[in-house]
Amino acid sequence: MRNIENYIVIFFMMTIGIGCSGFLDEYSQDEIVPSTADDLEQLMVGEAYPIITRVLSYLDLLTDDVDSNYPSVASQTKALITGAAVFTWQSDMYEQMAANTTTAVNTWEYYYSRIMGCNVVLDNIDAVIGDKGKKSNVKGQALAMRAYYYFMLVNLYAKPYNAEGIDRSKELGVPLILSSAVKDDFPRRATMAQVYSQIEKDLLEAVPLMDEHGQNNNLFKANDLLVHNLLSRLYLYQEKWEQVIKQADYVIGRSPILLNLSDVVMADGRFSWMTGTGVFDPASPECIWRYSSANEFDTFFYPYSPPVAYEASQELKDLYGKDNAGGLVDLRKECYYRTYAQGTQRIIQSGKKAITGNSKGMRVAEAYLNRAEANIRLYLKNNDEESRKAALKDLNYLRSCRFDTRTEMYQDVDKRGNSLLEFYMDERRRELTFEEHRWFDLRRYGMPEITHVLTLEAGQPVTHVLEAKSSKYVLPIPQYILDRNPNLEPNF
Question: Most buried residue, 149, 205, 220, 266, by CB count within 10 Å?
């Protein structure tokens, strides 16, 4: 495995623009070639899955799901300052975050290092010794995870797929590096069309491998449900509604049950983050894939000494009292957040959605939401009543698992026209909060205006506005990456 890791070091140097020829002189090709499927499986665990935290914990600071406070406690003040550049959409946000915290924010670099792990697997899988089924399983995992990382990169550092007037055949995406073969040059950005095509290609190639050999993978590995769910998400962003439904059908057909929050709260309706079951926990029937850890949100949403620097926005919290199913209590407000005695509600890293700490990943709930949106879009386009009913069926099932039905039955919602779409958007926001969806959803919803108020000095709040369709809906490529790769074009 030591030899395999040399590949990762070389790729890291190449991606950030450091020449490799001198380094390569120290290693011969046969020293860094894995020999068994077990080697590659071990590589997947250590070098291809997102095993560290905080790689993207700042993402929700960009959105309307977060408000800021002015805390008096030193630890909270540090968190406030650390997140200020992101919260106000600064062009040098990465440089400011790095200057204000000891925790590196290296999203671009980290995702490409994971891609290299996938590439090493894919370049060597056919030649290694091992059971055919195991080799197919590992190959499918590598394809799925490479697609996932490119999906994240292109949605962070390129324009929205459905941006008005966009020419995806010319618009810049991100560099596509599909081989572990080392080249002493600097990668250029592929077009958006090329990146999205590669994501789809990888996922479609992974489908038969995972369907046959990956169904029993544990929740920390890619499996068939992850592949189909990611395809449904990809097609959702591309507005290929029939394909969204097809892929979501597979996920729901294989794993239809959602966690009923009425079954996991205590007698008084509160959620115990010590003993309860969160939607990302192993006991949850809807968990597809899980990663992250208990301190995922510590840098910005510091969990001690309230009031916290950043918290769930008032607008978001108010949504849990809207459309409240005949007066029933929406248990997500209790199960997805912790409320302090002062009334401050924040994201929690060990209790939000997962008692065991892995509070990000994929869930079957997303498949229900993706399918519902696709049916709503088809209903609005074609005035198709069956599509409307199908969407409401999915939404009502999801909601029936989220409201307190211990003493009263859930009452189905019935909506029509654009009010159904608006209802869906609110429901998606309520359900998938702080799971790396909201920023991407805002982008594909047309990039609306967002207003944040930040107070860095007592009594001096400053209003910051992200204008509608702003170029800052695309994140900056970090300056140190640009400095080391002269072939990379900046976003602004």
Answer: 149
